[in-house]
Structure prediction request, 148 residues.
Amino acid sequence: MAVSSVGERIVELQPQAPKVVGPGRRERAYQERIVELALGEAHAKEAAERLARELAVAERVERGTQRRIDRLEDSVQREREAFQRSEEAQKRLLLALGAVQRENELLRERVLALQAASAPRLEAPQAPEKGRRGLFGGRRSRGSDRGA
Prediction:
C-alpha cells in the first residue's frame, strides 16, 4: 500500500482471476425447489392429458351407451305395442269364436227340430212270417228237405 502526499492511502488493485463463488445453501434449496416444481408441473400436465383422454373416452362410451339404451327402449316399446295388438286381436277372435259357437248351437237345435217335425215315425219291427226262414226267406236248408 502506498500513501499519498495528502496522507491518504492509495490502494492498487492488481488483476487476479475472479473467484468463483457458488450458490449458498438458500440458493441451492431454492433451485432444487424450482426443479421439483418443474417436474411436478410436467407430471401434472401428463396426468391432466391422461385424464382428458379418459374423460373423452368416457363421454364417447356414455353417448354410445345412451344410444344403445334408446334403441333398446324403442325395441321394447315396439314389442309392447305388438303384444298389445296381439292381445286385442286374440280377444276379438275369442268373442267371434264364442258368437260362432252360439250360432252353431242355435242352428243345431233348429236342424234337430226340423228333422223331428219332418221325419216319419218309425214303427216297431214286425215278427217274421211263418213261411220264411232265415235270412234269405224261402230258401230251406238241406237237412230240412230230406225229412219232409
